[in-house]
Amino acid sequence: MAGPVKTVCFIASVVIAWGLFEVGEAIVAWFYFKIRGIEIPENLELADQYKIEHMISILIHGLLLHGIRKKTSKFMFPWMFLYYIFILVGIIPIVMLGIRLIINCFYADYFEISRVDYKWTSIYSIVYIYKTWVEEIYKSIKKREEAIEINELMKRRMAENAKIEEGKKTKEGEKTTNSEKESEMMA
Fold it and tell me: Out of 6-10, 65-69, 120-124, which region has the weakest mean confidence (pLDDT)?
């Protein structure tokens, strides 16, 4: 499993670095504005849609890396959630493109397939492959968490059973002590 972990960490780090490259100048301008009070140029506003998307990407991939490092699935969940949304939204156009490609195999040039269609198919395929690696890591971490949880539950139950057994022995000891006292009093 070391292969997928290293690959996923490398890809997530590259995505984070690319996002920081895209929004870094705007973040520095914002800090400069907060410190010195100098106006932010319009081309560096953080409200730009693409900059917000990059910031969300940085956050999600940062959580993914943090979850892998800490070996906890709760930090990896946002990435998995967004991936499944991407797959559900993207499956319809990809299936339609696949049908057009199959039809083009039998009837040449029946549908026009542009570079954008091939680009989206490539992106969809790359994200799907990346997801399989992340999902493998996520499932192994989830399985480890469940095993730890079951182990802790077993320890608690064993401790409770030990207390119950100790309580039974104490009650039996009190009964024998009481019956010995009664027999001594009778004699």
Answer: 120-124
d(CA 24, CA 10): 20
Please give the Cα distance from 145 to 14 (Å, whole number): 28
Q: Residue 185 has what pLDDT?
A: 56
Instruction: Evaluate if pTM is beyond 0.70.
Output: no
Token pair, residue 8, equals 């996923």
- The confidence score (pLDDT) of residue 181 equals 56
Cβ atoms within 10 Å, residue 123: 13
Q: Which residue carries 């800090």 as its tokens?
A: 31
Residue type, 112: E
Report d(CA 135, CA 64) in Å as an integer.
11
- Could you give the count of Cα atoms lying within 13 Å of 69 in the half-sphere of its Cβ? 10
Distance CA 67, CA 84 (A): 18
Tokens for 62, please give them.
């940062």
Q: How far apart are CA 68 and CA 71, in angstroms?
A: 5
Q: What is the mean pLDDT of residues 62-71?
A: 90
177's tokens:
């002590």
**Whole-angstrom Cα distance, residue 129 to residue 83?**
12
